[in-house]
């Protein structure tokens, strides 16, 4: 590499002196590319004619397009010039540049560099070979009724899925490159006329202000652009469902897609919305309301049931119903540990089983989770390490945590249970109330893209309470974004319109 650099410096200006300009001679052009890219094994330099040279990265381009559309035209070109090739090359994405850095950057994303002897400009023919996973059913956000397709790792495929749902010319699509090393494509999506311009500008500024070396996944970007990265609670929704992503855009939210990630970002997002599922809108409102209420009850059970057990057995025996005192006493008669250690031990076992099951292959993970839980639970009771009643409570809490439809929020519920158990073991019900007050104050202080995190309950917005905990019937829940600049028609207007059409049809 040193000999190549020295030879290049001896016969032409150095790379530093070129300042990124395209050299006119083919030899200098190819030598500079080799130096700047460190001569990778997959760098292909092909001399098409005496004056035309093409350079590309193997496996990043579509070889059939190169062989059938680019090479025949270049081989038969009479008196070729950069402008004539740019004008007549029959490809959708053909650009012209006089900067070497721009050319190399495009080549690394699937473009062919076309250089003509004697010209200080090159043609960039973008023919990327995009290898993407086929569209499959979402794994983390499954539903019975509704769409069964999820995002994949191709940003172009994901945008096409969104456009199938939203056929609207007002759908904004802005592209950015994030990461000095990775130069990852990031798409900012919104609907003009529905999404607040302030929210769009805020997300746009936060993305443009990022000064990072790499960006691989949308989860990393969501933590970089949210309001408080130190909070354990997620303020931005990550979803793998195109229908939920589009539903968020139509509600006035800002969407972000990251190339190489199968998760879309939606913001702003409130605490209550993390417990909503897209399937809620596909069910009858009575069933959806029951399921939502069941989720909120399960959240309370998952967070506070074990701490209540620890606090009651440690400090507050008087709150235990008298019929339960005898079974509890018999169950804990041979247990040598205090309730707090007993509860933390079982909670830790449950988390270990859950983590081991998620890291193993699917069939093996399911077997480990079921068999391991039964074997360890039975052995712990027989060994006198824990009581039967606590095993039932721990299993109920673990089962309740799975009802949360959002994976990130489910992880939060799993974690915050541990400090509450510790506080309950030291201070009883007072420790539980202290933890509850701390969580409530923390949630009230959080924002999502500047919007209150606990909306519509704080600050109170009574008109929006209807579709938060309960799911209103569709005719009474006509979409109307709080950030929209254009209002949606009311239910009465829709009914009047339908009645008018019926009268016209009857007269005809």
Q: Can you walk me through this structure?
A:
- This protein has 508 residues and is α+β, with helices and mostly antiparallel strands.
- The protein folds into three domains: 2-126, no CATH class; 155-269, no CATH class; 290-452, no CATH class.
- It has 18 helices and twelve strands.
- The strands form three sheets. It has a five-stranded antiparallel beta sheet, with helices on both faces. It has a five-stranded antiparallel beta sheet with strand order 6-7-9-10-8, with helices on both faces. A two-stranded antiparallel ribbon has the order 11-12.
- A hairpin with a 2-residue loop joins strand 11 (447-448) and strand 12.
- Helix 13 packs antiparallel against helix 14 (362-382).
- It is elongated, with a radius of gyration of 31 Å.
Low-confidence stretches: 1-18, 480-508
Helix content: 40-55%
Physical arrangement of strands within the biggest beta sheet:
1-2-4-5-3
Largest sheet: 5 strands, antiparallel
Q: What portion of residues belong to β-strands?
A: 5-15%
Distance between the termini: 85 Å
The helix count comes to 18
